[in-house]
Write a structure and sequence with these properties.
With 208 residues, this protein is an alpha/beta fold. It has two domains: 144 residues, Rossmann fold, CATH 3.40.50.1000; 57 residues. The protein has eight helices and ten strands. The chain has a six-stranded parallel beta sheet, with helices on one face. Strand 9 and strand 10 form a beta hairpin. The longest helix has 14 residues.
Amino acid sequence: MLFDLDGVLLDSTRVVAAQYTRWALENGLDPAVVMKAAHGVRTMEVIQRVAPHLDAEAEMRKIEQREAAADKVVRMPGAVELVNSIPAGRWCVVTSGTRFLAVTRMRRFGVPIPEILVTADDVKNGKPDPEPYLRGAELLRVDPKQCVVVEDAPAGIRAAHAAGMKVISLPSTFPEQELHEADVVVAGLPSIKVSVDGAGGPLVVTLT
């Protein structure tokens, strides 16, 4: 199983919105336009899209340092219980954030850090390109067609499908009607149960 981080294991929506709004106003940009470009996409690509005249590397560091220092992030209900029910090495996190931001947030807000973590630093092309999820499958040493992804954003759903994976989506960031491309939408992580079929066998995912 492959999990997005923000909006799936951690609820950081308010922090992301606050920091992008602050950054947009500092640079004379429309916060609504910036936010529309932001969800599920790497910070670098957001900046390049909405403010190509700025130094994207420097601005990315500024935004992510602020996000890492923010307090209003909480674990999603059921996140710890779900990932702890999956054997080590059988799940990973695939995030559009940097490794610094992902590790800082998981450590600070109590989400287990997986053995395998794919971040913005590890790929050339971010979501909705399939590269991040294909990289996750490669590191898990599993056929992408045998993977299930948990996502909250259309960009991530498209990335996972382009990688040949099934997608369970949560309406945590976007309303359910905007997640129609997912294979299934569930109310929250407690609706997802994972077991192992035999010793070392495949994961069995059931939805309640």
